[in-house]
Amino acid sequence: MALAYRGMMVIWGFQMLLMPSVLLLAWLSVGKSGGSMYADSDYFLYYLSMPFVMNLTECWTVYTFPEQVRDGSLSRTLLKPVHPLWLHVLENVTHKAIQLMILLVPLSVLVWVFRAQLPPLELGAAKIAGIAAVLALAAALRFIQSTTLAMTGFWIEHVETLNLVLNQGVWALLGGMIVPVETFPGPIRTLAHLLPYRYSLSFPIEVLRGGLTTVETLKGLCIATGWIFAFLLLGRHLWRRGLKTFTAYGG
Asked: In this predicted model, what pLDDT tens digit does every residue of 129-158 receive, in sequence order?
């Protein structure tokens, strides 16, 4: 299915590049006039890394799963000898793999063009392994958080509106898509550190940038892991309750 929609993948890849590019140009001018704690090179690194992180962590079960509930096709997957959510996991992995191959070409060109503006990075084996672990944790958190929200599709006909507020709007503000979390005022930054949104976008880029101490990194990993377990428990509860009320039709 992923190979069948190659054109959509290309459009999606350029869409992921467009928004960070616009934000980069906007915050470069704001940073120069407003005395931001981020230097120009930090903004370049942050917004050029964002499409890569967003590609790995994006999740769309909040759209696909409620649709299965509405059209009754969930009843077919319930008969298969594998949990229905594993099908969504595999779909996310395959789509992201193809999107990443499409995205890496224009992203590599941008990195090469702006290589002089990027800050020097120390990328030893230990740091690369740490970044990979943080990205895997971010992808897991985003998937479980979105899927837990998708479970409300058993009771709500259209989850998209709820997702637009909780999983897109708040995530864009407190996750670091619009503004780097490190540049937030103190109280808002503290709130962002406690909520799950930062750990699926801003946190991996902060680790790459090298602006976090070892203690801060470990603390972030613990908070993200805690949110994963919290959403797992909530999602499992909603799944079991939802199946008791689910009545298949159509399909």
From this structure: 889 999 999 999 999 999 999 999 999 888
Write down the pLDDT at residue 94. Answer: 87
Its domain, for residue 28, covers 3-245
Total count of domains within the chain: 1
Amino acid letter, residue 240: R
Per residue in 1-29, is it b (16+ CB within 10 Å) or e — as a string? eeeeeeeebeebbeebbebbeebbeebbe
Distance CA 158, CA 138 (A): 26
d(CA 181, CA 166): 18
Question: Is 250 within the bounds of a domain?
Answer: no
Lowest average pLDDT, out of 28-32, 35-39, 51-55, 124-128, goes to 28-32
Between 144 and 98, the higher pLDDT residue: 144
Q: What is the pLDDT of residue 232?
A: 95
Instruction: Please report whether residue 66 resides in a domain.
Output: yes
Contact of 23 with 201, CB cutoff 8 Å: no
Round to whole Å and give the CA distance between 122 and 130.
12
- Give 75: exposed, middle or buried? Use CB within 10 Å, 0-12, 13-18, 19+: middle
Q: Is 203 exposed, middle or buried (0-12, 13-18, 19+ CB in 10 A)?
A: buried
Cα 138 from chain centroid (whole Å): 7
Residue 185 C-alpha from the chain's centroid:
23
Mean pLDDT of 56-67: 90
Q: Assess whether pLDDT exceeds 70 at residue 35.
A: no
In a domain, 251, yes or no: no
